[in-house]
Design the sequence.
């Protein structure tokens, strides 16, 4: 019925949503569809929620059961081939942070990412030297080879979001204290601040707003770092990624109330932050 995977890709999530929609449009209950397949209802539920990757024969059987026209069925089976391919991050599974296990492919397929950074520069905007200092702090027992691989993973994340053919729109809210907190050498900090400053001059897919300390308390101060991921595909709901001090405490959810709460908090906080064209000065 299914094969183990390293985690669902966006292509698999879209395929699963499509199969669920076709079943519902055909007026077939999950129980009836599972019976027709000769499997337990929970097995079909896992398939429709992208928790397992179906085999070609399984999808073909379901498409016939749902009365899918042959040209459409051929297109779905072609999409299945893409959905069964490992995500680009597959080679990094051994060092993948827990908070990214479910989010990394969703991140690289998003059309908009809104991020709040209370203590450090957001990972997608970090320079290699700045990131290296933080990785060394987070993994004090790691050797040079492991640190290099973790840097490569970050580089690939940045490439698959900010430098793809249709780059994500990234809107970052950064606390002013982040810019004053030294990470690494003065040269490292200067390069990092100059990197952020370029987005205030060359307005493109990245928007950076700095929240001044004088702004006082705001809703986002009640939580830690957070991202909201948005998609152009209607089958994919907005996601919230909230991260704590420990990676195991990270949360990935599409709960509408949680997403809206953070959206509202980001909207309010953005009104307190500097204009996106306000320059970021380096020492």
Sequence:
């Amino acid at each position: 019925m299914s094969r183990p995977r390293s985690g669902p890709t966006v292509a698999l999530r879209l395929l699963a949503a499509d199969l669920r929609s076709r079943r519902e449009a055909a007026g077939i209950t999950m129980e009836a569809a599972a019976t027709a397949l000769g499997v337990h209802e929970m097995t079909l539920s896992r398939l429709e929620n992208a928790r397992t990757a179906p085999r070609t024969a399984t999808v073909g059987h379901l498409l016939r059961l749902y009365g899918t026209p042959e040209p459409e069925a051929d297109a779905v089976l072609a999409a299945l081939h893409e959905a069964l391919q490992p995500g680009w991050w597959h080679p990094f599974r051994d060092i993948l942070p827990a908070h990214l296990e479910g989010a990394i492919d969703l991140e690289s397929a998003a059309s908009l990412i809104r991020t709040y950074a209370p203590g450090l520069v957001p990972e997608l905007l970090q320079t290699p030297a700045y990131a290296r200092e933080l990785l060394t702090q987070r993994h004090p027992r790691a050797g040079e080879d492991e640190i290099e691989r973790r840097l490569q993973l970050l580089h690939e994340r940045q490439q698959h979001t900010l430098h793809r053919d249709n780059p994500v729109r990234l809107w970052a809210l950064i606390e002013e204290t982040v810019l004053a907190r030294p990470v690494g050498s003065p040269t490292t900090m200067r390069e990092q601040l100059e990197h952020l400053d370029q987005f205030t001059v060359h307005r493109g897919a990245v928007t950076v707003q700095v929240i001044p300390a004088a702004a006082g308390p705001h809703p986002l101060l009640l939580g830690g770092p957070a991202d909201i991921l948005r998609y152009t595909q209607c089958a994919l709901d907005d996601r919230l990624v909230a991260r704590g001090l420990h990676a195991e405490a990270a949360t990935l959810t599409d709960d509408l109330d949680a997403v809206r709460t953070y959206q509202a908090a980001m909207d309010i906080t953005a009104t307190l932050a500097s204009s996106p064209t306000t320059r970021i000065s380096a020492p």
Remarks:
- The radius of gyration is 22 Å.
- Residues 1-6 have pLDDT under 50 and may be disordered.
- The CA atoms of residues 129 and 188 lie 6 Å apart.
- The longest strand covers residues 169-175.
